[in-house]
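re: the backbone from monday

yeah here it is again, tokenized this time
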């Protein structure tokens, strides 16, 4: 099997017979980090009515959600990007998925659309987390949930998340409190939250890119038709000139100059978003 070093992201090939039933520790030949590797779980064949998937790029948000859900008796698996979210949802079949709309690699609203479009995952309850980059800007629900069952703002998570998950469990599956089940260990390396800081070893760059994805997620979740129309017309930047300008000003304030000097991450993420959305609309 192939695993990824959680520190330097080097891909390592590990023979299955070298991994003990409880997992084995391996040292990365590139950065010398030691991390735990567990055997991949067998693919689930039915929805796990006690498992919640938390898909969020911000480790602090994911940790908060995990603590709240585990305190309620749920099993939790956390992922950091859209590809991991798709693979985990398909393999583990959680009964609820909490998904950040601004996930890297595949945006969260696209993950939602894909999961709801597949027969094996269409019954997963999905709660979207709008990635508001300026909490003073929006005071209304998203105009569409992209097939999701509910949404929760980050600042409302502690008071609302558990109630929303419990409601979905009652409506979609069965009444009563969750029954604790033995959680199947996740595939790949298991590390402390500090070691699993993100998909890039340069946290500053990842933070910069995450901020831009947040800006773009805001635009799309609150103005989906306008985004689609402007992408197809080739005038996305012109249509959202004011919003992008405001986002760039915040980007300059929140992202240190030494990080911004490493690349034009603001415009790179915008170009990637436009290209990805255009392919989706044309396909």
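seq for it, each position gets an aa:
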């Amino acid at each position: 099997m192939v695993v990824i070093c959680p520190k330097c992201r080097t891909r390592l090939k590990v023979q299955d017979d070298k991994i003990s039933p409880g997992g084995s520790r391996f040292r990365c030949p590139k950065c010398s980090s030691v991390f735990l590797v567990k055997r991949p779980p067998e693919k689930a064949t039915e929805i796990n009515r006690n498992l919640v998937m938390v898909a969020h790029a911000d480790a602090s948000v994911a940790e908060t959600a995990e603590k709240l859900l585990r305190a309620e008796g749920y099993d939790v698996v956390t992922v950091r990007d859209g590809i991991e979210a798709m693979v985990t949802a398909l393999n583990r079949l959680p009964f609820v998925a909490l998904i950040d709309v601004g996930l890297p690699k595949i945006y969260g609203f696209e993950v939602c659309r894909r999961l709801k479009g597949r027969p094996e995952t269409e019954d997963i309850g999905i709660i979207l987390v709008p990635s508001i980059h300026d909490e003073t800007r929006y005071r209304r629900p998203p105009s569409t949930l992209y097939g999701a069952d509910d949404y929760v703002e980050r600042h409302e998570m502690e008071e609302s998340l558990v109630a929303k998950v419990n409601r979905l469990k009652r409506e979609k599956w069965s009444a009563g409190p969750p029954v604790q089940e033995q959680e199947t260990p996740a595939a790949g390396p298991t590390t402390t939250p500090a070691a699993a800081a993100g998909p890039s070893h340069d946290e500053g760059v990842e933070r910069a890119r995450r901020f831009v994805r947040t800006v773009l997620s805001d635009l799309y979740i609150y103005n989906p038709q306008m985004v689609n129309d402007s992408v197809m017309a080739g005038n996305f930047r012109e249509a959202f000139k004011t919003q992008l300008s405001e986002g760039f000003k915040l980007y300059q304030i929140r992202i240190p100059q030494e990080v911004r000097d490493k690349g034009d991450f603001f415009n790179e993420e915008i170009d990637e978003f436009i290209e990805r959305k255009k392919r989706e609309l044309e396909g």
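Residues 136-140, 175-200 have pLDDT under 50 and may be disordered. The domain at 48-188 is CATH 3.40.50.2300 (Rossmann fold).
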